[in-house]
Each structure stands twice: as C-alpha cells, then as structure tokens.
Amino acid sequence: MNPSPASHFAVISSKPIVIVITVLTVVCGWLLFSRGLKEDYRLEAFVASDNPAYEKFQSFVEEFTSNEFAVVALHTTQPFDDSVESMLVELTEAFESVENVQRVNSIVSIPKTLRVVMGDRLFSHPLLEGNLISQDRRTVAILLQMAAEGSGGAARRRSVSQMRDIVGRFRESHQDVNVLLTGPYVTLIDMYAYVDQDLLVFSVLAFVLIVVTLWLVFRRVAPMFFAGFVALSAIVLTLGLTIVLGIVSSLITQMLVILVVVLAVANCVHLAVATEDASLDVDVQSRPQAVLGHMLLPCAIVMLTTAVGFGSVSISSIAPVKRFGVLMVFGLVVAFIASVAALPTLVRFSALGGNPPQHRWAKVVLAWCAGLSVARRKTILVGFLGVAVVMFFGSLRIEFQSDFIKNFRPGSEIRRNYEFIETHLTPLGSTELVIRRNDGAKIVTANVIDQGATVASASVSKLEMVRRALTLKDALSLVVPGAITTDVQATQSCDLLRMIPGGADILRNFLNDAGDTMRINFRCVEGYDVQQKLAACQQMKEDAQQAYGSEYEVEVTGLYHFYSTLIDGLLKDQYRSFGLAGLLIAIVLATAFRSLRMLAILLLVNFLPVIFCVGVMGWCGIPVNMTAAMMLSVTLGIAVDDTVHYVWRLKREFALHGNLERAIHESHESVGRACLFTTIVIAFGFSILLFSRFLPTAYFGGLLAVTMLAALAADLWLLPALILTLKPFKSRLADTSIQE
Description:
Layout: H1 5-12, H2 14-34, H3 52-63, E1 69-75, H4 82-95, E2 101-105, H5 112-118, E3 139-146, H6 153-173, E4 178-182, H7 184-218, H8 221-245, H9 253-278, H10 287-311, H11 319-350, H12 360-375, H13 377-395, H14 413-424, E5 429-437, H15 446-462, E6 466-470, H16 472-476, H17 487-499, H18 503-508, E7 517-524, H19 530-548, E8 552-557, H20 559-593, H21 596-620, H22 631-657, H23 660-669, H24 671-687, H25 695-726
Antiparallel strand pairs: 1-3, 1-4, 2-3, 5-7, 5-8, 6-7
Helix pairs in contact: 1-10, 2-8, 2-11, 7-9, 7-24, 8-9, 8-11, 9-10, 9-11, 9-24, 10-11, 10-20, 10-22, 12-23, 12-25, 13-21, 13-25, 15-19, 19-20, 20-21, 20-22, 21-22, 21-25, 22-23, 22-24, 22-25, 24-25
C-alpha cells in the first residue's frame, strides 16, 4: 500500500500540531483552575432567551410577583397553637435576613387584629388553608418569596445555604417538630448541586474504568498515554472554550466531559489496534504513514458522522441541549486532530514495548461471529427483524415526562419533601390565567371579580389535575367577607386591602400595579401526560375567554404550563434533530462509499440500534426528558462509527483477496477486534452514569451503554449478513482506490 499524500502531510506536520495542542491545553487548564466554569442557576438557563413561552412567563412574573419561591413546612403532633405561632415568629425573623428573600409569608404575617376578628374562619380561608396551614392544622408553612431571575448563581447558592443553616439550627432546638425546606427555588439549586457532585465522582470513576479497560486491552503504557493525551486535550480545550466565550456549561458539563473523553478514547483504540496490525509487516519508520494511509479517511468520516449526530441537537430550543451539541462538535474535532498528530509518537513508543497481547478470547469470539454470519445469514436476518419488530412496539409505549420532580430518584430528599407538601398542603404545580382589558382600562369591576371566581370553580370541577384555584375574590374576602355587588365596592375593597399590613403584597398576587390585568392561580398535581397537561391549560384559557368575551385578552402561563411546553418542544426537537442527523449522515456515507446499495445497508444496520434504544425506553418505562430527548440523534451518530471502520476494512480485504467470505473473516479478526474493544470502552464509560442521582443523566448513560452493545451485535452479525445477501461489491476491482 502506498501512503496517501494526506497521510504523508499529517506525519510531517504532526510535531508542531502536538506542541500547539499541548500549549493550548496548559493555557485552558490554567483558565479552568483560575476562573472556573460559568454557571447559570436561573430558569432562563433552560431555554433560549427568545422562547415565546418563556417570554410570556417572564412578563407574568414582572407584572405580578416573582414565581420563584421556597417553602418551609413544620409538621407537629398537635394542632396550631401559641407554641407553633412562636416557632413561626422565630423562623420568620430568621428568614427575613436571608439574601434574596423579598418577602416572608405565614399565618403570623396576618395582622393580629385581623386574626382575632376572623377567629377560626381564618384557618379555612382559601388563601390560608392548603397554602399556609393544613386542614387538620398540624402542618404550617412559611412561603419565602425570592428575588426573580436577576440574581446570580453565587447569590442563589448563598441564599439556599443560609436557609439550610436556619432550618438545621431550628431542628436542633426543636427535635419534636418535623421541619423541611423545599420549593422550586431550592430544588433548582439542589439539582445543580447533584450534577456538580456527580461530575466530580463519575468523572473520576469513568477515568479509572477507562484506564483499567485500556490496560486490559493493550497491556502497554504507550496506547494509554496516547489515549490520555488526546482525551485530556479534547475535554480541557472544550471546557476552556466555554470560559473564553462565556458559555454557560451548567447541566451539560457532566455528560460533556464523559462523552468527549470516552469517544476520544474510542477513536484512539482504533488507531492503536491499527498500529499493532501494521507492526506485523511494516518497519517502524514507515509505520505512521502506513497506519494513516489506512485510517485517516475512515477516522475523518467517523468524526464527521459523530459530529453530525451531536451537532444536529443544536437546533433545539432548549439552551443546554443547544450548547451541548455545539461543544460536542468542537470536542470531537479537537480529538480527531490530536489523535492524528500524536500518532507518530504512539508508533515510536509502541515499538519499544515488545509484542502486543494476543487476546485469544477475542479472536475466538470474533471468529465464531464471522462464521455465524457466513453460515447462518438468513437466520440472523430473521432474528434481527424480530428484534426490530419487538422494539418498534416498545417504542409505542414511550412516555414524555413533564414532572420535574421525577428527574430525581424516589428516595431522594427532594422528592420526599415535595410529596409531603402535596399530601399535607397543596400541589406546587402552578398554572396562571392572566386576564387583561384590550382597551387598557381598569379591570376591577364586580362582574370581572365574580366571573374570575366562577371560571376558577368550573376548572376545579371539570379538570381532574386541578385541585384548587385562587382568585382576586379570595384575596378581597379577607376584608370584605360578603359578596361584592357594585364596581365602587370592588374598588373600595382593593383600597381597603392595601391599607392592612401585608395587604398590598397579597393584592399584587392577583392585580398588577396598573390595575388593568388580573391573575387566577390554579394549583395542579403531577402524574399526567404532557399532552393532558397542555390540553387542560388550553381548556382553562378557552373557558375564561368565553366567560369574559372579546373585550378581554386571556393568556395561560406559569411553571406548570411552561415546563409542559418545554417537554412538548423536546419531542418536536427530537424528531427534527434525528431527521437532520439521518439526512446529513446519509450524505456523508453516500459520498464516502459511492454506492446506494452500500448506503442502504449502512442505514439499515445503524437504524436498528436507534429502534433498539427507543424500544428499551418504552418497554422499561424510561420517559423522554431533557436528556433522553437527545438519544436518537446521538445514538445514530455514535453507532455508525464502528460500522464505517468495519466496511472500510472489508472493502480493502475484498480488494486484496476477491473472496467476500474470506474478507469477512479477515475483517472480524482485525477491525472487529477494535470494534469490540471500543464498545467495551464506551459501554463501561457510560454505564457509570447509571448511578447518578439525577435520573436524566442515569438514563442517558445506561441507554447509551446498552445501545452500543446492540450496535456491536449489528456490526458483527447483521452487517456481514446483509453484505453477503445484497452483495454491494461487484468484483475484486470494485474499489481499487482503497489500495492507493
């Protein structure tokens, strides 16, 4: 084989490239150490800033009150009494000093005189019962209204830390009281903490697993240092890019690190195995050019197809997913360049390390797979067809999760606290109807207030996920217990509510400062399909619009609706990105192999792992969430890698021997070994994520590990069987360019 000009140039220019990559890696490493990664703990970090649903939600928050809140709940053995009241006063005073806390609401926030006047009637008031006190009066809550999106990540962490300290001290001094801290503000910070902690733990564990795997595969230091240099350079430069460009890496860092490292190492395994094969018949001086002559083009194709798979997810409207796709493409390109540049160094050091291990077990397994593909190809085709059918029916069972709390394991403190609040107080899922006059006039009239209460009551009766609703009428009933019959009385009631301590804050929850927009708050339970949630929200909006007429504009928003919209968008993004990935990968493969029949074989083989992945999700009850929504495109992009390497080697073997069955046996023995080893590396690297406390990450790692095993089976059995059946190679001279 004569080395190609591209391989010759790559060998000559390798040293300067290695030096440049090394220097950049050191600089980026210093940036990581000195500056750290940019994090964003706001809700906006989940979405693009121009997302219509988010803009609507932000407009609502600015018009009324911040929707970011924390909840402190106290559960006692006795109903509410003076001792519980004193504990609420103690905690209220402590929480008022916490950074970012704008307002502290509890029963003791209500003026003493009003509490005396209302008596027991106060405890059953809609604004209190279920919100600030349970029906049996054994659970009381403190609602902490937090500063909205403007506060930074560090300030948010400090706020939650201060709140935890207060709760911790209170538990020590009141051991007979069960007190817990929860709410969206706390949960978001806890989620980031989970991800950060998992990043440290699983990155170390994945590194150890990869090192052990590489040692078992090669039993020599040179391939391990080669893979280590490439992987370290790729991930450090990628993370350094986020610092230089100010890219937020929250939520995606953990997967980014492990994916870049694992895929970089997998590419290095293919090059290392090719180096071992070349050592049998090529001298050391010619070996780098010989290896690159075989491997440069397939490695470039693999890099392109994998980059296409990851890059396609960047069309998502979900900000972390979009950033993830772009950064993965950058990391893969860096890994490819670093691996090609460092290959001559690998060759030189490999020559000093003695003979490579024989791996007789691998040869036996691969020879058996090749023999089975040749002798039983019809059985294999029928068997894989059966698997595809079973997995297709499994895909019909797939669910789309819109319950944010189900991103955490059932036994976690986050889920226990949420379940406690929903059991003893009220659901935390908040949906908002915003009603405003089209002409900009004042909205407060007796009819508007009464219609709001009617709409709220009808939605609670009609929609099973809506458990309660709060309206302006409920707020005004604090000062006017009876019916409001005139417009003048409605205006006076609002003025009267503003006069009592804390009344202005209560009113702002339901009426904006301009007085032209009103809000109805619905509390909804989780556990429903995302389409059911969106349908319920739409029904609320249509009922309200019908009740108020064309003079009013009705909008639906709130965290419950917003998060459901987010998940619904993920479904659309998944199909769009998968379609884009499939199209671009098909173009790359068609260009590389110049055969429609071979393209059909490659697509059949690589769509099977995708169907397998979705089928496993359906049969195992794994829902589509923020992370799992990337699975189709990513799986296709990774699964095609080994297929490209196998077919590239098979074409060369067929060109050399002219016998397809012999070419399959030779390919299994050579590149099949690399495919086996890379699958082990990938599966082990991703499987460690199964232990993550953040379930989307665990699902992502486990699914990729299992799917890569399915992809290996397809490459070693289905691919040869299809090639033998469809015969895409016409003759021994079908592709003489492989030999050049």
